[in-house]
Amino acid sequence: MPRLFSGLELPADIKDQLTDLEVPIPGAFWIEEDNLHITLRFAGDIDNRLAHEFAEELSRIDLDVFELALEGVHILGGNDPKVLYAGLRTSPQLEALARAHERAARSAGLAPESRPFKPHITLARLRNVSIPDLTRFLQAHALLRARPFVIEEFVLFSSKPKTGGGPYAVEESFPLRGANPVFADLDE
């Protein structure tokens, strides 16, 4: 029974920039560089038939290539912070892609997502975090920015069943309209 979710991979230099932010903060458990991503739709622990249906529905999404950009660092959880994340500049194209993934999930037979889509890149999970250290980190990186990066595909990720977290594996990739084709063998 695979644990699946759809999402976006990040360019290597963006991942490098994000992992360069890592500093010792008591109670912060940093995400490994290879596991940094943007989740579009969590499917969960589903059977192989439903996984196949979800992948089939995702393959029908027909949207254009677009750009994204980082914008600041933030927390989820209010007075009891649970997640430290990098935000993303508002993107109508990303919102449209997330809505398409929700429609694909529902068409495949998954229950509707109960939470609104909040695009972000999880940097660290927080447990009994040092609030003064976290506050200093947030103040130091509130204006985080990076070069805009192009999204040419989305992917179907898998993770360990019932545990979540990495390592994540790409099960299938889906190009967006206008993506540059990759030529595997230029000698032909």
Descriptive account of the structure:
With 188 residues, the protein is of the alpha+beta class. The protein has a single domain, classed as Cyclic phosphodiesterase (Cyclic Phosphodiesterase, Chain: A). Helix content is 25%, strand content 30%. It has helices at residues 12-19, 48-58, 92-108, 131-141; strands spanning 3-8, 28-30, 38-45, 66-68, 70-76, 83-88, 120-126, 149-151, 153-159, 169-175. The strands form three sheets. The protein has a four-stranded antiparallel sheet, covered by helices on one side. It has a four-stranded antiparallel sheet with strand order 2-7-6-5, with no helix packed on it. A two-stranded antiparallel sheet has the order 4-8. Strand 5 and strand 6 (83-88) form a beta hairpin. Helix 2 (48-58) runs antiparallel to helix 3. The radius of gyration is 17 Å and the shape is globular.
Quick structural gist:
The protein has 188 residues and is an alpha+beta fold. It has helices at 12-19, 48-58, 92-108, 131-141; strands spanning 3-8, 28-30, 38-45, 66-68, 70-76, 83-88, 120-126, 149-151, 153-159, 169-175.
Mind sketching the topology for me?
Layout: E1 3-8, H1 12-19, E2 28-30, E3 38-45, H2 48-58, E4 66-68, E5 70-76, E6 83-88, H3 92-108, E7 120-126, H4 131-141, E8 149-151, E9 153-159, E10 169-175
Antiparallel strand pairs: 1-3, 1-9, 2-7, 4-8, 5-6, 6-7, 9-10
Helix pairs in contact: 2-3
Give the topology string: H per helix, E per strand.
EHEEHEEEHEHEEE
Name the assembly state: single chain
Q: CATH homologous superfamily - what is it?
A: Cyclic phosphodiesterase
**Uncertain stretches:** 183-188
